[in-house]
Amino acid sequence: MSLPRDIRRLALLAIYQLDSGSISSDDAPAAALGALGDLESLESEGLPKPTGKLTDRDRQRAAKLAASAWNDRKTADALVLELAPDWPTGRQPIVDRSILRIAIFEMTTGATPPKAAVNEAVELAKQFSTEKSPSFINGILGKILKTVLARQDAAAAQIPAPDPAADPATDPAEEHAGNGDESDA
Q1: Helix 56-71 and helix 73-83: axis angle, to 10°?
Q2: Whole-number Å distance between alpha carbons of 2 and 96
Q3: How far apart are alpha carbons 185 and 182 in whole angstroms?
Q4: Taking 90 as the threshold, does the pLDDT of residue 31 lie above it?
Q5: Fewer CB near the last or first residue (10 Å), C or N of the chain?
């Protein structure tokens, strides 16, 4: 079983290939999965190999993440454009926008804790992109993180706390009556 970082790294490779046009996006999940076929070539290309043994399930998870982020790219691109109007997606390196798309998808859907998604995106930028990319990605995702966390706080404030008195499982009288001990009778 691989680490989530390995799965995310594979998703990055797949979404990169989708974005560069190396594979067709008509059937993004199958295309992304196919793009992950030859992982042995990673090392020969100077890219880090996965730390764990990749299973078919890991490849499926990576393909699903890539396809989901790819399908949600318009939302991610719009957020980035709003926050960095001088850096629309067309001006960004493919690696950077691929990292941003994955991270934004993970943050906004709750697939990954938002702070973890930011940290993982910065780590991917350090491994795969330019010297300035980690700070650019951190800046964009930091702004999105504030919005996502504020939304989570607002949602949590609207959910009423459970009332222990309303839960029959915590009623001591019912606990005693249902224990099967009839020695008191």
Answers
A1: 60
A2: 23
A3: 6
A4: no
A5: C
For residues 4 and 92, what is the distance between their CA atoms, to the nearest angstrom?
25
Residues 145, 118: contact at Cβ < 8 Å?
A: yes
The 10s digit of each residue's pLDDT in 128-165 is: 999 999 999 999 999 999 988 888 777 778 876 566 56
Contacts of 83 (CB under 8 A, 6+ apart): 140, 143, 144
> Rounded distance, CA 130 to CA 59, Å?
26
Cα distances (angstroms) measured from residue 11 to each of 5, 95, 103, 180, 183: 10, 12, 11, 55, 63
Contacts for 63 with CB less than 8 Å, ≥ 6 apart: 10, 11, 14, 29, 30, 32, 33, 36
Amino acid letter, 63: A
User: Is residue 145 within 8 Å of residue 83, measured between CB atoms?
Assistant: no
Q: Could you read off the pLDDT of 76-127 as tens digits, one per residue?
A: 999 999 999 998 888 999 999 999 999 999 999 988 999 999 999 999 999 9
For residue 97, give every residue at least 6 positions away whose Cβ sits within 8 Å of its Cβ, in sequence order, or none.
19, 77, 80, 89
Instruction: Give the length of the chain.
Output: 185
For residue 91, the 8-state DSSP code is G
The amino acid that residue 121 corresponds to is A
